[in-house]
Input
Amino acid sequence: MVATTVHLLRHGEVHNPEGVLYGRLHGYRLSERGQAMAELVARTLAGEEGVARHDVVAVIASPLQRAQETAAPIAAAFGVAVGTDERLIEAANHFQGMTFGVGDGSLRHPAHWPHLRNPFRPSWGEPYVEQVDRMLAAVDAARVAAHGHEAVLVSHQLPIWVTRLALENRRLWHDPRRRQCALASLTSLRFEDDRLVGVGYGEPAASLLPGASQVAGA
Output
C-alpha cells in the first residue's frame, strides 16, 4: 500500500478592519500577522527547528487572494508552483459584504431573517453537502497528483470543517463556535492507496494566533 497525505490548510489572518463578512469577495489580503503565519507554516513543513521535513510535492489553493498568499511561501519552500482549484473556494453566503451581528449589523433587518430559518442546510448559503462534495473532489485529485507524497490544499474554515465532519461520519450542522479549524491550521488526511486511514489536526502557527501569550511579529 502507498501512503499519501493531503493537508487542508486554512489561510492566515486577513486584513479586515471593518469587520465585513468577506466570503468570496476579492481583494481581501493577509494582514501582517497573517503573512507571518504563512511563513511559519512554510518553515514548519520544510523542517526547520528540528522538525523533519515534510514530503510536499503539490501546493494548491483557493482562487481567493488570502488563500493564494498563504500558499505562496509554502510553495516556495518546496520549489513548486502554486496551483489553483476553484473547488477549494469559500462557502457562498447571503451575508457576504455585510457586517453580521445584532447591533448595527445585518441581523437587525427583518428582510434578512428568512435566510436564517434553516441552520441544518444552511439557509443562508451554500448547502453543507455541496461544500463537502466539491472539497472531497479536490482532495481526491490532489491525492492522485501527490501519490506517495504529500499535498497542501489551502482553503477556508467552513469548507475544511464540514469536510472533516463528513469524513468522521459526524453530522454537518454544528455550532460555529466549536469548529476546530484555527487560522493557519492543518487538517491532515492520511491515505493508504485510496483509503482514508486517519485524520490529524495541528496548529503550526499557534504562537501567532490572536490572544496567544506571545505574538511574534504582530
In short: The beta strands are 3-10, 56-61, 82-84, 150-155, 186-192, 195-202. The CA atoms of residues 66 and 209 lie 16 Å apart. DSSP finds four helices and six strands in the chain. The radius of gyration is 17 Å.
